[in-house]
Amino acid sequence: MQSFIQTSRTEPVKSEVSERILDFGEIYTLYTAKKVALQAERCVQCGDPFCTVIGCPLNNAIPQWLQAIAEHDLEKAFRLSNETSPFPEVLGRVCPQANLCEGACTLDDGYGAITIGAIEASITDLAFKEGLEIPFPGVIRDKKVAVVGSGPAGMSCAHFLLRAGIEVEMFERASKPGGLLTYGIPGFKLEKGIVERRFKMLKRAGLVLRLNCAVGEDITLQELHDQYDAVFLGTGATEGKSARLDHENSDQVFYAMDYLTQVQQRLYGQEWDARFNVAERNVIVIGGGDTAMDCVRTAIREQAKNVTCLYRRDQANMPGSVKEYRNAVEEGVEFLFNETPHAIVVDDNGKIIGVDAVRTELGEPGEDGRQRVREIDGSEHCVAADIIILALGFDVAENDALETLGVKANQWHEIQTDAESGQTGNGKIFAGGDCCRGADLVVTAAADGRKAAMAIMEQLLGK
């Protein structure tokens, strides 16, 4: 260990731009067994590991599995990384590590942080190739839990309940499980076979998966409450935020998640709406987060004529990860920073021809600590567009059934839970992830799912 002076930080190999924009395959090739050990050896084994304590919402045992893989003990590293995380090979790919574990790494200032994310994903990928399995006992308890939603929070809750031998029945309205991981994160960041492999594993462990089953339509929440020993809600935040612009309801204006979902359905060979075809069109994506980056990079692969990202702040203030921004630039996306949309422009036939935008500048910090955005007088101009994609965040959909069961939600429809357990106002119902937080990270949803699973275990099985 502590070879950071002799060994520099080395990122996974990235495929050439001219090749990777032709399909939705992952653009990074993760480490070999030799390479992963070399990168892990750089860890200084801090006495107070900020990567775990501060950087990781799951508080993963990062130094321990780094040491194990550095010593070429793949099985130990695999078991350690899968002990606290429900899907490390997923989080190693999609977490914004620069803002989390790697950003908290002692070596980040001067020598380059440990490539924690790539090592994390590589350990589980290599272990699965070696035939290693996560130990599940099978269903050995006389308790049954209903999990609503198969996204990160639901997957996490189900994983840990199954590890305890508790039967789990999962209800998912889509035809494939995974929620955001399947339909919202493009394959160039997370190949869908990785998600499918996890669900096959959970089904072998005893998961009963009900697809094409919408709670509230095919079965009521009241029925789940009455028929199961506990219920976990991991329904996410799926309502796209509006820009409140005229003509926003045009057929040429899409919400980000609708666009990404439709493209993924086409890739699956499922029925899709052809109006989401952006080939040879001028596309503008409004927003600066990772979802916006997913949209612009997807539009490139969907053969858009031009793809432009419009963001009202500067590049340094983008909420999205630096890595995703750089990938988008490499792939041909144009960024217009310090620009805010004022109106969607249509011709006499109602067809969109552009966005009227105003240039902005950053002023003094507001109450949230971020610099306020000021519009520059006389800077109005039009940016040509045929298609507009709104990537401004997500809201939680309203659910009238919650109140009748004593589950409270706030003014933004976010479910209110106990911070320590994820328990709602109804003692049998727990919740976590974006339906409680609003749009957040996959790893925070995973942490919420685990927290609720532990509380459910205590409630059903005792300490």
What does this structure look like?
With 463 residues, this protein is α/β, with parallel strands linked by helices. The chain has 17 helices and 18 strands. The strands form 5 sheets. A 5-stranded parallel β-sheet has the order 5-4-3-6-18, covered by helices on one side. It has a 5-stranded parallel β-sheet with strand order 8-16-9-10-11. Strands 12, 13, 14 and 15 form a 4-stranded antiparallel β-sheet that branches. A hairpin with a 5-residue loop joins strand 12 (339-346) and strand 13. Helix 2 (33-40) packs antiparallel against helix 7 (116-129) and helix 12 (256-267) packs across helix 13 (290-301). The protein starts with 12 loop residues before the first strand and ends with a helix.
Layout of helices and strands:
Layout: E1 13-14, H1 17-20, E2 28-29, H2 33-40, H3 50-53, H4 62-70, H5 74-84, H6 88-94, H7 116-129, E3 144-148, H8 152-163, E4 167-171, H9 180-184, H10 192-204, E5 208-210, H11 221-227, E6 230-233, E7 239-240, E8 253-255, H12 256-267, E9 282-286, H13 290-301, E10 306-310, H14 322-330, E11 334-336, E12 339-346, E13 352-365, E14 371-375, E15 381-384, E16 387-390, E17 394-395, H15 401-404, E18 429-431, H16 434-437, H17 442-461
Parallel strand pairs: 3-4, 3-6, 4-5, 6-18, 8-16, 9-10, 9-16, 10-11
Antiparallel strand pairs: 1-2, 7-17, 12-13, 13-14, 13-15
Helix pairs in contact: 2-4, 2-7, 4-5, 5-7, 6-7, 8-17, 12-13, 13-14
